[in-house]
Amino acid sequence: MSVREIVAWVMVAVFGAVGAICLTSILRAGFAAPPQQSVIEAAGFTVIAVVVLEIALSVFFPKQSGAPPDERERLIVARAGHWSGLVFLFGVLPALGHYASHGDGNTMFHVIVLSLFVSGVAEYGSQIILFRR
Predict the structure, then answer these.
(1) Which of 82, 60, 80 minimizes the C-alpha distance to 128?
(2) At what angle do helices 105-132 and 37-60 cross, to 10 degrees?
(3) What are the tens digits of pLDDT across the range 55-114?
(4) Would you list the domain boundaries of the chain?
């Protein structure tokens, strides 16, 4: 398995687990409730997890982690990023439409945060699928 595929597996786990925790917190409080502290902390945890992952990879795989992606990897990352952007768009547009018609910023915030986690899972999950082809 390449380093980029290892990163994709770890990131799917991080985005999936943290996104599931956020979803349960949001569902417990309701979409119209003010943003939960746990949701805001989850975003910070995700950033810290990404930084720790990159540091760990540079320690354990120094040559591979610093190497530029080859042509195949560049295409895979670009295609997965495109799909991820579309997934994010399909979450953000309804949230913005809901805000425009109802003026409910709390619901918009929650939907956009969940869309961010879903798009992260979609990006790294599609990278795994494309690396395995």
Answers:
(1) 80
(2) 30
(3) 988 888 888 777 788 898 899 999 999 999 999 999 999 999 999 999 989 999 999 999
(4) 3-132
